[in-house]
Amino acid sequence: STVGACGDVSRNVVATPAPFETPEYQHVREYCKVFAQLFRPMTPAFSNIWLDGEEPASVEMWSKDVTHHNIDEAMKYDSGRGIILPDSTEPLYGDRYLPRKFKIGVTVPGDNSVDVYTNDIGVVVITNESGELEGFNIMVGGGLGRTHNKKNTFARAADHLGYVPKEDIMELMKSILASQRDHGNRDVRANARMKYLVHTLGIDNFRTLVESYFGKKIQPWR
């Protein structure tokens, strides 16, 4: 998916392009759609400004494939731990959105064709021997961008955050986004990507921050 153009939102969700039909790869494609739908901007600004208020013919073609996940309900679910903001239009982004763009990569163990360690969030599908989905390994804080001659900008590989069972994945993803939304650098745009927040805090402190929103301990990487 590509949503939000240059907006400071979850801009891209990418899946490995390998055309395999094993259960693991099917889970990858399904959850790419889940994450794209979960983090889509809710504002009608684009259609109001450019289309006289008419809805585009199709903007989220993937949404019809994941209706059984009840994503809107999961998006708006308020645990009371600060993830949901009191903004009727954007419950996750609020009125300030994110400090910078946000990218997500999803893959299976052993397939790094999406360069998963270069994403703000990297997601690795974990299945049992029968191919049934059990959960996800999550990594955070990757990114390749840097500014020439600015030593305080740098490329960075993501760190392993841990493992989450499938039933908790959307709430954990929301918790990571909220951590960056509330604690990312809004003063220096060159250092506003989540990789700088993870680098500054360290992965252990960042994990603790995410857990404060999540309300649970994140399990060890599998």
UniProtKB/TrEMBL annotation:
Cellular-component GO terms for this entry: sulfite reductase complex (NADPH)
InterPro entries: NO2/SO3_Rdtase_4Fe4S_dom, NO2/SO3_Rdtase_4Fe4S_prot, NO2/SO3_Rdtase_4Fe4S_sf
Alphabetical UniProt keywords: Iron, Iron-sulfur, Metal-binding, Oxidoreductase
Residue stretches making up the Nitrite/sulphite reductase 4Fe-4S domain: 87-217
Domain of life from the UniProt record: Eukaryota
UniProt cross-references to SUPFAM superfamilies, sorted A to Z: Nitrite and sulphite reductase 4Fe-4S domain-like
UniProt family annotation: Belongs to the nitrite and sulfite reductase 4Fe-4S domain family.
Name used for this protein in its record: Nitrite/sulphite reductase 4Fe-4S domain-containing protein
Source organism per UniProt: Cyclophora tenuis (Marine diatom)
